[in-house]
Amino acid sequence: MMQVPAGRPLAPEPGALRLDVWEVETEPDVVYVYEVGTDDAAFESHINNAPAQKFGEIMNDLVEDWTMVIPFGHSVAS
To answer: Is the pLDDT of residue 7 over 80?
Structure first.
């Protein structure tokens, strides 16, 4: 597994605590992004801001069937 600890977001958002990106050698076409926020409101604010919306548009153009799997606040392992 290769992990890039991105740490704090480049442009801090209220409630944003951490951002990590990693790949697993046995999943060659998969990239995982793990974001940590303070609560559901921070998460909703993040996914609805302009940079996140632009990221979604770019991903829709570049990657087939990309998806957000589990919001942090709803993760059992968190």
So the answer is: no
- Grade residue 68 by pLDDT with cuts at 50, 70 and 90: low
pTM greater than 0.70 (yes/no) = no
Domain boundaries, the chain: 2-74
Q: Would strands 16-23 and 32-37 be described as parallel, antiparallel, or unpaired? A: antiparallel
Residues 6+ apart with CB under 8 A from 38: 15, 17
Pairwise CA distance, residues 43 & 75, whole Å: 13
Q: What is the pLDDT of residue 6?
A: 53
For residues 62 and 47, what is the distance between their CA atoms, to the nearest angstrom?
Answer: 19
H or E stretch covering 59 = helix 50-62
